[in-house]
Amino acid sequence: MQVNWREWGKEAFEDARRREKPLLLSISATWCHWCHVMDEKTYSDPQVVERINRDFIPVRVDADRRPDIDRRYNMGGWPTTAFLAPDGSLIAGATYLPPAEMLRAMEAVLAGPGGGGRWIRRPPEKTEIDPRAADEILAEILLAYDPAYGGFGRSPKFPQPYVLRFLLEEYVRSSQDELREPLLKTLREMAGGGMYDQVEGGFFRYSTTRDWSIPHYEKMLEDNALLLGVYLDAYMATAEDRLLEVAKDLCRFLLGPLRDEGQGVFYGSQEAHQEYYLLDGGKRAELGPPPVDRTVYVNWNALACGSLIRAADVLDEPSLAEEAERTLAFLLAEGTREDGPAYHYYADGPHLPGLLEDQTALAGALMEAFQYTGREDYLQLAEGLIAWACRELWDDEAGCFRDTQESLLEPVWPFMENAGAALALLKLAALTGKEDYRKRAGRILESLLPRWKDYGYMAGELASALRLYTEGSITVAVAGPEMAELARIARREYLPGKVVFPGQRSDEDIALICVGELCLAPAKTKEELSQLLCRIRKEPLRM
User: Fold this and answer.
1) Angle at which helices 161-174 and 221-238 pack, to 10 degrees?
2) Spatial distance between the Cα atoms of 3 and 79, rounded to a whole number of angstroms
3) Phi/psi at 352 (nearest 5 deg)?
4) Which of 389, 417, 390 is nearest to 162 (CA)?
5) Nearest-angstrom CA–CA distance, 26 and 47
6) Helix (H, G, I), strand (E, B) or coil at 41
7) 416, 418, 432, 329: which is closest to 383 by C-alpha?
8) How far is CA 162 from the centre of its chain?
């Protein structure tokens, strides 16, 4: 006897309405230990299975494959166990439930009023853009910082790459030691403790303890791709050798167990397997590695591409950029629909087109590729993805993006994804010179700023976008016979908000550095460009 799981879709909801039954929504993930436990214990219990199949419409989704559903119904972790009315409104929910508790929960839902009211989502309020909000978010980050072990909060501790990136940006802008110390201590402690696999490389998803000693052992492509970018940029800003070692190790990890060398793509995650990770290298080989989720997520692959392209410059390994371009070629050929949007994942074909995070992440990777190669088609493709999102997902009343077009779901204007969209729009504005992109980013900021206190120190990505909007991007345009080398010098210097524009052919070498309409005198040699970039590090330009 087993649960007769259904796919999320119109048919399941129509069946629930016709039979007047609530839906049981299970949200799980391949890497989630307690999801497997609930399958083995609760969803294999004969009484539970019989009750579910008789009185509910059971629906199961994967959290990674359907982030739009996870975003709306997650009860604070995985597995999520949610009970829905036939109109999709939430009746009740929990996370892991052992068999006895599951039976009691189902009894309570069936005995209740049957829906508990509509789960209403209202468009976010808007406010004027106040640059001081970035200072307030920085203060929240420093307040959450753990001076004993690094990181933010106590336990469990997550790596928080967007918080670390904003902290890095603020340190480079100000050169304040009070920002350098929390940044470097966190990066060192994470890489030196149990959060990092000291044998095979790669960060685990989070630490269950304050001192990073006992991790939750799954490894996620998203986390490792983002952290690679943070370690690379932190190395460029501080010249700390340990950060460079970790970045090299992360490249090896990404191109190891999570890489499909044949297709040139990255898999989504590697399962938690405590027994395996507590062994040394030799004994691990005897046991065999934990299973890998072979789903190809477009947004996570795009994040990996962007970080590998940066690594190609920092590590002076062009092969890393070549690997990233192979991945981009697959994503564009197999993970993007002909009429515009990127899909969310690929597993025996592409699935779920049109989520906001996939459009902005892939556009971001294409912009990195344009800056590295100078290929204008990359920039045009990035514009196409953003144009589709602006056309199909933009909510003019709310002043920001919806996350999906799907009609079965109540509209949601996600905070984190819109912060990422604002950053993508600002970068695209800098690379194309089109003010409309910057104006739209400003509208997103107006929409998100009233909500940042709900996220506290975790609003780091919003703070990055706000700083970039108010202080402006640094554009380095290069041309001439030595254009490739000039561009490489510009890319290797870490400056927050910097973009590099490989220009038109010219008989004379030239590099022009601007913030908005404010430009420095052109550099005509590699040495002059290096000196100017160093000067900007010490005396930042302002619009």
Assistant:
1) 10
2) 16
3) 60, 75
4) 417
5) 17
6) helix
7) 432
8) 9
Q: Where in the chain is the domain with CATH 3.40.30.10?
A: 10-111
How far is the C-alpha of 8 from the C-alpha of 21, rounded, in Å? Answer: 15
Which tokens is 277 given? 């990770």
Structure tokens at 469: 């909007």
Question: Tokens in use for 516?
Answer: 């908005």
As a whole number of angstroms, the distance between CA 385 and CA 359 comes to 5
DSSP for 130-181 reads -THHHHHHHHHHHHHB-TTT-SBSSSSB---HHHHHHHHHHHHHH--HHHHH
Say which residues have a Cβ less than 8 Å from residue 415's Cβ, sequence separation at least 6. 448, 451, 452, 454, 455, 459, 462
- Give the C-alpha separation, 468 to 316, whole Å: 28
DSSP 288: -
pLDDT per residue over 235-266, tens digit each? Answer: 999 999 999 999 999 999 999 999 999 999 99
- Where, residue-wise, is CATH 1.50.10.20 in the chain? 145-294
| Helix/strand/coil for 388 | helix
pLDDT, tens only, 408-446 = 888 889 999 999 999 999 999 999 999 999 999 999 999
Provide the CB-side half-sphere exposure for 206 (13 A, CA): 14
Query: Can you tell me the distance from the alpha carbon of 305 to that of 323, in angstroms, rounded to the nearest whole number?
Result: 8
Q: Quick check: 120 pLDDT over 60?
A: no
As a whole number of angstroms, the distance between CA 465 and CA 431 comes to 16
Question: Any idea what the Cα angle at residue 222 is, between residues 217 and 224, rounded to 5°?
Answer: 65
Alpha-carbon span 496 to 460, nearest angstrom: 14
Beta carbons of 433 and 475 less than 8 angstroms apart: no
> Which residue type does 56 have?
F
Distance CA 179, CA 184 (A): 9
Are the C-beta atoms of 461 and 419 separated by less than 8 Å?
A: yes
The CATH number of 145-294 is 1.50.10.20
Helix (H, G, I), strand (E, B) or coil at 45: coil
Confidence tier at 171 by pLDDT (50, 70, 90): very high
**Peptide bond before residue 156 is cis, with ω within 30 degrees of 0:** yes
10-111: CATH architecture: 3-Layer(aba) Sandwich (3.40)
